[in-house]
Amino acid sequence: MISREVVRTVFLSALLYASLARDAGPQSETSAEDIPEGASTLAFVFDVTGSMYDDLVQVIEGASKILETSLRRPKRPLFNFALVPFHDPGATKWERFHVAVDVFPVA
């Protein structure tokens, strides 16, 4: 079995590579004319807390397939994407979360 540290290192390396590859070109502001009609942004938020380790490997593989498929489609092109690691050790208290959610009114 692959250790958590290896998965975390590979994941963070992929994030860094994606960021550097995108930033390698000349810097310029993106205007509305530069964005193809119907283009979209694809964002992945990965829960990288220790309790999600077993699921994280499968989720990363699935996200890679989704990204590859999205990049190949000729219609409704993918303009950009984001990979976001999420780790909040304080968010493990689900009871406190549910109480906090109940504070918001539902319309």
Automatic annotation (TrEMBL):
Primary localisation category: secreted
Localization per record: Secreted
Keywords, in A-Z order: Secreted, Signal
Keyword Ligase: no
Signal sequence coordinates: 1-21
One Pfam short name: VWA_4
Keyword Secreted: yes
Domain Hemicentin-1-like von Willebrand factor A as annotated: residue spans: 42-92
InterPro entries linked to this entry: HMCN1-like_VWA
Origin: domain of life: Eukaryota
Record protein name field: Hemicentin-1-like
